[in-house]
Amino acid sequence: MVAAPLDVPLLAAGDRFVLRAWEIGDLPLVREASSDDYIPLITTVPSTYSQAAGEAFVRRQWERASSGGGYPFVIVRIEDGRPLGMVGLWLRDRDEGRASLGYWLAGSARGQGIAAEALRAVVRWALGDLRIARLQLYVEPWNAGSQRTAEHVGFQREGLLRSWQQVGEERRDMIMYSMLGADLSSPAAD
């Protein structure tokens, strides 16, 4: 079954950030993410930045939406319009009532609650407007910051998935988190 193209909406993420579709003007964010030790290992961000590689990354985000594979959002600070990171809602298992999420922030934007604001906005939209029954995300056991973000938003830790994902040259364990519509009423989700 071929998925219909998706329109990436503009979502408010608290009162300091918006989530929007990728633009070619977001190349400085791709450049910063390329220099991160971890982001290129777990995403399609190029590990060596060039104009062509950056543009190819942005085009891949457009393709994800146009092919129906998911919603790739750029996290943008309203105050100055600066792109700070990405959050994605991936629909590979939507026919089963599930979708997965992923997020990353440029190093200069970490530790400020930005990922939680962005994740919370996408979660509410996915569970509410899109009526997806179950959201999942995966975090490496050592990544305490991403675990705190997921738990702060209201995700429930379900367990360790051994050797779940290829990261760089090796298979790595991942902790699975989930959220259901009923979880939105929990204090952590507010």
UniProtKB/TrEMBL annotation:
Family matches, as InterPro entries: Acyl_CoA_acyltransferase, GNAT_dom, Ribosomal_N-acetyltransferase
Residue stretches spanning the membrane: none
Span of the signal peptide: none
Sequence ranges assigned to domain N-acetyltransferase in this UniProt record: 28-181
Keyword Thylakoid: no
SUPFAM superfamilies: Acyl-CoA N-acyltransferases (Nat)
Database matches in Gene3D superfamilies: 3.40.630.30
UniProt keywords, alphabetically: Acyltransferase, Transferase
GO molecular function, one term: acyltransferase activity
A Pfam family matched in the record: Acetyltransf_3
EC number of the protein: 2.3.-.-
Name the UniProt record assigns to this protein: GNAT family N-acetyltransferase
Species: Streptomyces vulcanius
